[in-house]
Structure formats: C-alpha cells, structure tokens
Amino acid sequence: MSIIEKAINKLEKEVGSKAIHNVKRKRPQPAVNTTIKADVSEEANISEKVVDHFQVNRISHDKPLPTTASPNYINIDLERLHQLGIVTPNQGKTQIAEQFRIIKRPLLTKAFAKKNNNLIMISSALAGEGKSFCAVNLAMSIASEMDHRVLLIDADVARPSIPNLLDIENQAGLMDILIGKSGDVSDVLIKTNVEKLSLIMSGTAHSHATELLASQTMAILLEELAQRYNDRIVVFDAPPILLTSEARVLPERMGQIVLVVEAEQTTQQALNQVINQFSSKANISLIYNKVKTFASGEYCGYYYS
Predict the structure, then answer these.
(1) What is the dihedral angle through the alpha carbons of 251, 256, 260, 261, rounded to the nearest 10 degrees?
(2) Which of 25, 113, 145, 153 is 20 to 30 Å apart from 137, CA to CA?
C-alpha cells in the first residue's frame, strides 16, 4: 500500500471516530412546560411559547464553558416572569414593581434592627391566596437593592410552588440538609442570573417534615443563614398556616411574618385564627392581594403594617 493510500485510510478512521463521538455526546432537548397557573389577572392559565432551550443556551465549542453550566446555577427566564406579572430587573416603573417597592421598604427597615429580623416568612391562611407569587415578587424586588442580597427558600415542603413559578426542577434543598443528605448550605445553594438572588429548593419530601423543621438542626441552619452575610435577607415561602403543621413551627424561628390575604376570599375568622397561632411578640405584616380596583379587572396588592 502506498503512502497516500495509508494516509487516506488513517484520515477516514479519524473522521469516523469523531463522528461517532459527536453522536454519543449529543444531548436530548429538555422537555418544556408550556403552561403554568399564576396568581395574576383572574388567575388564568397562561399559555407560553415553547422555547427551544437547546438553541437559546447553545454554547460555542471554541469557547470555555461559562459558570452557568454548573449544577448550582440556573438561568431564570426573566421575560417569561415578566409576562406572568412578576417583578424582573430593569423593567422600570410597572405597577407590580411599584407595589413591591412599597411592600419591601418597611420589611427592610426592620430587617437588621433585631436579631434574625432578616428572616422573613411569607404565608397565608389557606392555599391559592398568592403567597408564592408574593414571595417571588418580594425576593426579586429586594434583589434590585443596592445594599442587600436575597436568598429565597421554598419551605412549602409538601407542595412546593417555586419550581413551577420559576420553571425549574425541584432538587436537593432544605429537607436534604435537615436529614443529613447534604452536609452544608453551599451544597444546595443555587445562584441565578439575577446577580443578588440565590435559591434553596424544598428538596426531598419527608414524612417527618414537621419534626425536622422544629429540630435543633433547623435552628442552627437558620442561625447560619441569618448571620453568615450582614446584608442578606432570607425569604421563606412557607405552607398555608391552617392546612399544614409545618407552617406552625416555622414562625417561632422567624424575625418577620408576612401574611398574604386574598381580597374578598379570606374571611375575618380565618385571619384571626391564623394570627392566634403566633405569639404576642410576633412581628406580623399583611399583603392584601388581588384587589380589584380597575374596570379592566386588574388585581393589585396593598401593604398594611
């Protein structure tokens, strides 16, 4: 065999090997959730355009992988959140953004006036009143502050809503730390493309969630979360108070409690029953949500301290 023939055979083998290698490396396109139930304008099911995530997040092979490839980093689709009526960075003076600027200000004023006041629990009497919607909006609004960073924790361990709202998968989180599957906060802390916003998911479901949330391990964890950074606000999306026992052990460890009250739905009796669950020293604020104030039927929230 001539030298030229040998070279051709060698080239064919190399090209074939690379082609096989590329086929093995090709990743399937991720499934995309096309609808989501959101607490905005009449709580309609909002249809979304199916986004080709593989094309949007395609990475050039001649550049190094960015930090977004890390499993502890997620890219939140901010345009999608904006369409759902959720506060996003640099969106200007929209109505929802202005409402949550008003809501967050007294919470931030109190945040470091007393130990653990930077731990803020968002809850409601019953399901469907918009607590998760308000928790995400509050966290996103605080993330726009110059002097604060925010950690949003999905503490609704029975029915986590943050993954659906942000269109992300639930993964190891709060419960995994409490049961010892994850050794440190850094193992479950998720950074995002919103610079000052981090997340911790609810994690693995557990039959003794109430006891775990009331445990000494939880107390140590909250102390660490509250004290590790002197500019950090920690927002907990907690379960509805009247539906789960988990929600009743969390307030004892929180510096501030925010109750979301659905206009024309939450009764005075239910609200009184919730407030009676807390100690007389509890720092409680209310968000009056879904107030119908315009002929167009748009819903607004107002804050009362």
Answers:
(1) 90
(2) 113
